[in-house]
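Re: the 117-residue chain
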Amino acid sequence: GERDRGLERERGQLEAKLCTLTSERDALCAQLASMTCERDALTASVMDAAGERDALSGAVAAVTSERDALSEKLAAAVRERDALTVGGDSAAGEMEAVTSERDALLDERGALTGERD
């Protein structure tokens, strides 16, 4: 009798302990599931951020390429302006020479005309 009651009491305590441990295990499993969901959400967020970063890198590359093309156009325009300036200077020089030649011819004509008078 006494021994059976002692064993019965011990069995009850062990069952209660098993029940507590089972509850703790279930709580830990739920916590693990929650943490797994958080990790998956963070992983997805990181993937989204990486995608955005790649898209921004592509946009930066496109803008850089466009800037380089515009720089080349600007350089070409400056070269063209410089060539026109040189051409304009040359034309001005030619015009001066033609004007001097004309003045000399007018002087010569004036001298010849003056001689005839």
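The longest helix spans residues 2-116.
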